[in-house]
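User: Can you help me understand a structure? I only have the sequence.
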Amino acid sequence: MKLYIYARSAHNFGLENIRRASAVYNMLKGSEPIFCSADYRAATFAKTYLGVDKGVGVDVIGNMPNVMERGDILIYDDSGEASDTMQSHMKEYCTHLYKIGTDIPYDVVDDIFFQECQKKEQKVIFFADDDYKEWFFNELKSIEKIDMPLIWGHYFFFKNEDETAKHFQELLEEDQYIDTVRSSKYILTASVHTALESLASSNHPVLFKRGDKETSNLDLAQKYNIPIIQKDNLKEILVEFETIINSYPKTEKIEKFDITKIKTEVEDTLKKFEMIMPSLEYKDY
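Assistant: Let's start by predicting it. Here is the structure, written out as C-alpha coordinates:
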Protein backbone atom coordinates (compact mmCIF):
# COMPACT_ATOMS: atom_id res chain seq x y z
CA MET A 1 0.00 0.00 0.00
CA LYS A 2 1.26 3.46 -0.93
CA LEU A 3 0.29 7.10 -0.58
CA TYR A 4 -0.11 9.10 -3.82
CA ILE A 5 -0.55 12.84 -4.21
CA TYR A 6 -1.92 14.07 -7.54
CA ALA A 7 -1.90 17.64 -8.84
CA ARG A 8 -3.37 18.70 -12.16
CA SER A 9 -0.75 20.56 -14.17
CA ALA A 10 -0.15 22.15 -17.57
CA HIS A 11 1.95 24.97 -18.93
CA ASN A 12 -1.10 27.14 -19.67
CA PHE A 13 -2.48 27.37 -16.13
CA GLY A 14 0.56 27.71 -13.94
CA LEU A 15 1.79 25.95 -10.84
CA GLU A 16 -0.65 26.87 -8.06
CA ASN A 17 -1.94 23.28 -7.86
CA ILE A 18 1.65 22.00 -7.78
CA ARG A 19 2.61 24.40 -4.97
CA ARG A 20 -0.41 23.40 -2.88
CA ALA A 21 0.07 19.67 -3.43
CA SER A 22 3.80 19.96 -2.68
CA ALA A 23 2.99 21.68 0.62
CA VAL A 24 0.83 18.67 1.53
CA TYR A 25 3.57 16.31 0.30
CA ASN A 26 6.06 17.89 2.69
CA MET A 27 3.63 17.64 5.61
CA LEU A 28 3.29 13.88 4.95
CA LYS A 29 6.86 13.18 3.92
CA GLY A 30 7.30 10.54 6.63
CA SER A 31 4.81 8.34 4.76
CA GLU A 32 6.99 8.47 1.61
CA PRO A 33 4.28 9.79 -0.74
CA ILE A 34 4.57 9.56 -4.52
CA PHE A 35 3.87 12.82 -6.35
CA CYS A 36 1.91 12.62 -9.61
CA SER A 37 1.37 15.27 -12.28
CA ALA A 38 0.91 15.47 -16.03
CA ASP A 39 3.41 18.11 -17.06
CA TYR A 40 7.05 17.01 -17.04
CA ARG A 41 8.32 20.54 -16.39
CA ALA A 42 5.97 20.92 -13.43
CA ALA A 43 7.14 17.62 -11.94
CA THR A 44 10.78 18.62 -12.43
CA PHE A 45 10.05 21.97 -10.79
CA ALA A 46 8.48 20.25 -7.76
CA LYS A 47 11.52 17.98 -7.38
CA THR A 48 14.05 20.79 -7.85
CA TYR A 49 12.47 23.56 -5.77
CA LEU A 50 9.60 22.24 -3.64
CA GLY A 51 11.07 19.31 -1.71
CA VAL A 52 9.42 16.48 -3.65
CA ASP A 53 11.50 13.28 -3.66
CA LYS A 54 9.44 10.73 -5.58
CA GLY A 55 7.32 11.42 -8.63
CA VAL A 56 5.62 9.79 -11.60
CA GLY A 57 3.98 11.19 -14.73
CA VAL A 58 0.21 10.79 -15.11
CA ASP A 59 -1.46 12.62 -17.99
CA VAL A 60 -4.96 12.81 -16.42
CA ILE A 61 -6.41 11.87 -13.04
CA GLY A 62 -8.48 9.14 -14.71
CA ASN A 63 -5.25 7.22 -15.36
CA MET A 64 -4.23 7.07 -11.69
CA PRO A 65 -5.33 3.38 -11.44
CA ASN A 66 -2.61 2.62 -14.01
CA VAL A 67 0.07 3.54 -11.46
CA MET A 68 -1.79 2.71 -8.24
CA GLU A 69 -3.05 -0.56 -6.82
CA ARG A 70 -6.53 -1.05 -5.40
CA GLY A 71 -6.53 -0.01 -1.75
CA ASP A 72 -3.81 2.65 -2.05
CA ILE A 73 -4.33 6.11 -0.55
CA LEU A 74 -4.83 9.19 -2.74
CA ILE A 75 -4.76 12.93 -2.08
CA TYR A 76 -5.66 14.96 -5.15
CA ASP A 77 -5.85 18.56 -6.36
CA ASP A 78 -7.73 18.31 -9.65
CA SER A 79 -9.27 21.81 -9.95
CA GLY A 80 -12.48 20.38 -11.36
CA GLU A 81 -10.90 17.70 -13.54
CA ALA A 82 -12.67 14.71 -11.97
CA SER A 83 -16.43 14.30 -12.50
CA ASP A 84 -18.74 13.26 -9.66
CA THR A 85 -18.89 9.76 -11.16
CA MET A 86 -15.09 9.52 -11.33
CA GLN A 87 -14.75 10.71 -7.74
CA SER A 88 -17.24 8.05 -6.66
CA HIS A 89 -15.15 5.37 -8.40
CA MET A 90 -11.97 6.76 -6.83
CA LYS A 91 -13.54 6.57 -3.38
CA GLU A 92 -14.42 2.93 -3.95
CA TYR A 93 -10.93 2.17 -5.32
CA CYS A 94 -8.90 3.81 -2.50
CA THR A 95 -8.66 2.94 1.17
CA HIS A 96 -8.62 6.67 1.90
CA LEU A 97 -9.36 9.51 -0.52
CA TYR A 98 -8.73 13.18 0.34
CA LYS A 99 -9.50 16.14 -1.87
CA ILE A 100 -7.64 19.44 -1.75
CA GLY A 101 -10.36 22.04 -1.68
CA THR A 102 -12.59 19.90 0.56
CA ASP A 103 -10.67 17.75 3.07
CA ILE A 104 -7.62 20.01 2.78
CA PRO A 105 -8.27 23.71 2.14
CA TYR A 106 -7.09 25.61 -0.94
CA ASP A 107 -5.26 28.02 1.36
CA VAL A 108 -2.84 25.33 2.56
CA VAL A 109 0.66 26.86 2.51
CA ASP A 110 4.03 25.15 2.93
CA ASP A 111 5.37 25.34 6.48
CA ILE A 112 8.53 27.13 5.35
CA PHE A 113 6.54 30.33 4.83
CA PHE A 114 5.58 30.39 8.51
CA GLN A 115 9.21 30.23 9.64
CA GLU A 116 10.94 33.42 10.73
CA CYS A 117 13.48 34.98 8.40
CA GLN A 118 15.30 38.26 7.99
CA LYS A 119 13.00 40.83 6.38
CA LYS A 120 13.87 43.40 3.73
CA GLU A 121 12.12 46.72 3.15
CA GLN A 122 11.71 45.59 -0.41
CA LYS A 123 9.05 45.66 -3.11
CA VAL A 124 9.02 42.82 -5.61
CA ILE A 125 6.78 41.70 -8.43
CA PHE A 126 5.81 38.15 -9.36
CA PHE A 127 3.21 38.09 -12.11
CA ALA A 128 2.58 34.34 -12.10
CA ASP A 129 4.27 31.11 -13.12
CA ASP A 130 2.72 31.35 -16.58
CA ASP A 131 2.42 34.00 -19.27
CA TYR A 132 1.32 31.70 -22.07
CA LYS A 133 -0.56 34.40 -23.98
CA GLU A 134 2.28 36.90 -23.31
CA TRP A 135 -0.12 39.42 -21.76
CA PHE A 136 2.40 40.48 -19.13
CA PHE A 137 5.25 40.65 -21.65
CA ASN A 138 3.22 42.82 -24.01
CA GLU A 139 2.13 45.15 -21.21
CA LEU A 140 5.79 45.83 -20.41
CA LYS A 141 6.36 47.35 -23.85
CA SER A 142 4.59 50.55 -22.75
CA ILE A 143 6.67 50.87 -19.56
CA GLU A 144 10.24 52.08 -19.58
CA LYS A 145 11.50 50.93 -16.17
CA ILE A 146 10.00 49.38 -13.04
CA ASP A 147 11.89 50.05 -9.83
CA MET A 148 11.38 46.51 -8.48
CA PRO A 149 12.90 43.09 -9.04
CA LEU A 150 10.83 40.59 -11.02
CA ILE A 151 10.70 36.91 -10.07
CA TRP A 152 10.86 35.03 -13.37
CA GLY A 153 7.86 32.77 -14.09
CA HIS A 154 8.38 29.09 -14.72
CA TYR A 155 6.41 29.05 -17.98
CA PHE A 156 7.66 32.38 -19.35
CA PHE A 157 9.12 32.16 -22.84
CA PHE A 158 12.92 32.33 -22.73
CA LYS A 159 12.98 34.27 -26.00
CA ASN A 160 11.45 37.14 -23.99
CA GLU A 161 13.95 37.09 -21.12
CA ASP A 162 16.43 39.70 -22.38
CA GLU A 163 13.70 42.13 -23.39
CA THR A 164 11.88 41.63 -20.07
CA ALA A 165 15.07 42.28 -18.10
CA LYS A 166 15.33 45.78 -19.58
CA HIS A 167 12.17 46.84 -17.77
CA PHE A 168 13.16 45.77 -14.25
CA GLN A 169 15.66 46.59 -11.56
CA GLU A 170 16.66 42.91 -11.54
CA LEU A 171 15.46 39.52 -12.74
CA LEU A 172 15.32 36.88 -10.01
CA GLU A 173 15.47 33.23 -11.01
CA GLU A 174 13.16 30.46 -9.81
CA ASP A 175 15.55 29.26 -7.14
CA GLN A 176 15.17 32.65 -5.43
CA TYR A 177 11.37 32.52 -5.33
CA ILE A 178 10.87 31.11 -1.83
CA ASP A 179 13.47 33.28 -0.09
CA THR A 180 12.26 36.39 -1.93
CA VAL A 181 8.57 35.83 -1.10
CA ARG A 182 9.46 35.16 2.53
CA SER A 183 11.72 38.18 2.98
CA SER A 184 10.12 40.93 0.87
CA LYS A 185 7.80 43.28 2.74
CA TYR A 186 5.62 44.00 -0.31
CA ILE A 187 4.83 41.80 -3.28
CA LEU A 188 2.66 42.61 -6.28
CA THR A 189 1.32 39.42 -7.84
CA ALA A 190 -1.47 37.96 -9.95
CA SER A 191 -1.13 34.60 -8.16
CA VAL A 192 -3.47 34.06 -5.21
CA HIS A 193 -1.28 31.29 -3.82
CA THR A 194 1.81 33.51 -3.90
CA ALA A 195 -0.18 36.18 -2.06
CA LEU A 196 -1.08 33.60 0.61
CA GLU A 197 2.58 32.55 0.95
CA SER A 198 3.55 36.20 1.41
CA LEU A 199 0.82 36.66 4.01
CA ALA A 200 1.95 33.52 5.88
CA SER A 201 5.44 35.09 5.97
CA SER A 202 3.94 38.14 7.76
CA ASN A 203 4.43 40.31 4.68
CA HIS A 204 2.10 42.57 2.69
CA PRO A 205 0.86 41.10 -0.61
CA VAL A 206 -1.15 43.01 -3.18
CA LEU A 207 -3.06 40.97 -5.75
CA PHE A 208 -4.06 42.12 -9.21
CA LYS A 209 -6.45 40.43 -11.59
CA ARG A 210 -4.55 39.45 -14.70
CA GLY A 211 -5.79 40.64 -18.06
CA ASP A 212 -5.48 37.37 -19.99
CA LYS A 213 -7.51 34.92 -17.94
CA GLU A 214 -9.60 34.49 -14.83
CA THR A 215 -7.84 34.55 -11.47
CA SER A 216 -8.36 31.28 -9.56
CA ASN A 217 -9.51 31.27 -5.91
CA LEU A 218 -10.01 35.02 -5.75
CA ASP A 219 -12.34 34.46 -2.79
CA LEU A 220 -9.31 33.51 -0.67
CA ALA A 221 -7.79 36.96 -1.16
CA GLN A 222 -11.10 38.45 -0.08
CA LYS A 223 -11.23 36.12 2.93
CA TYR A 224 -7.92 37.50 4.24
CA ASN A 225 -8.60 41.08 3.14
CA ILE A 226 -5.63 41.07 0.77
CA PRO A 227 -5.89 44.23 -1.39
CA ILE A 228 -7.04 43.48 -4.95
CA ILE A 229 -6.41 45.70 -7.98
CA GLN A 230 -8.95 45.22 -10.73
CA LYS A 231 -7.39 46.94 -13.74
CA ASP A 232 -6.27 45.55 -17.10
CA ASN A 233 -3.49 48.06 -17.68
CA LEU A 234 -0.15 47.24 -16.01
CA LYS A 235 0.91 50.88 -15.81
CA GLU A 236 -2.26 51.71 -13.85
CA ILE A 237 -1.77 48.63 -11.69
CA LEU A 238 1.70 49.81 -10.68
CA VAL A 239 0.38 53.26 -9.73
CA GLU A 240 -2.38 51.74 -7.58
CA PHE A 241 0.12 49.36 -5.97
CA GLU A 242 2.14 52.32 -4.69
CA THR A 243 -1.03 53.94 -3.34
CA ILE A 244 -2.04 50.76 -1.50
CA ILE A 245 1.31 50.10 0.17
CA ASN A 246 1.47 53.70 1.41
CA SER A 247 -1.63 52.93 3.45
CA TYR A 248 -1.70 49.16 3.65
CA PRO A 249 -4.90 47.73 5.21
CA LYS A 250 -5.16 45.30 8.11
CA THR A 251 -5.22 41.73 6.83
CA GLU A 252 -6.44 38.57 8.53
CA LYS A 253 -3.85 36.16 9.83
CA ILE A 254 -3.44 32.93 7.89
CA GLU A 255 -2.97 29.85 10.06
CA LYS A 256 -1.05 26.66 9.36
CA PHE A 257 -3.31 23.86 8.23
CA ASP A 258 -3.43 21.19 10.93
CA ILE A 259 -2.97 17.96 9.00
CA THR A 260 -2.70 15.80 12.15
CA LYS A 261 -5.97 13.90 11.61
CA ILE A 262 -5.13 12.94 8.03
CA LYS A 263 -1.50 12.21 8.90
CA THR A 264 -2.50 9.88 11.75
CA GLU A 265 -5.08 8.12 9.60
CA VAL A 266 -2.59 7.60 6.75
CA GLU A 267 0.22 6.42 9.03
CA ASP A 268 -2.02 4.03 10.97
CA THR A 269 -3.39 2.50 7.76
CA LEU A 270 0.09 2.05 6.26
CA LYS A 271 1.34 0.40 9.47
CA LYS A 272 -1.63 -1.99 9.59
CA PHE A 273 -1.01 -2.96 5.99
CA GLU A 274 2.67 -3.63 6.72
CA MET A 275 1.62 -5.99 9.51
CA ILE A 276 -0.78 -8.02 7.37
CA MET A 277 1.41 -8.16 4.25
CA PRO A 278 3.37 -11.27 5.36
CA SER A 279 0.06 -13.12 5.74
CA LEU A 280 -1.17 -11.98 2.33
CA GLU A 281 2.08 -13.06 0.68
CA TYR A 282 2.27 -16.45 2.44
CA LYS A 283 1.72 -19.43 0.18
CA ASP A 284 0.97 -22.89 1.56
CA TYR A 285 2.90 -25.40 -0.50
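Now, to help you interpret it: Residues 112-246 form a domain with the Rossmann fold fold (CATH 3.40.50). The chain has a mean pLDDT of 92. Let me know which part you'd like to focus on.
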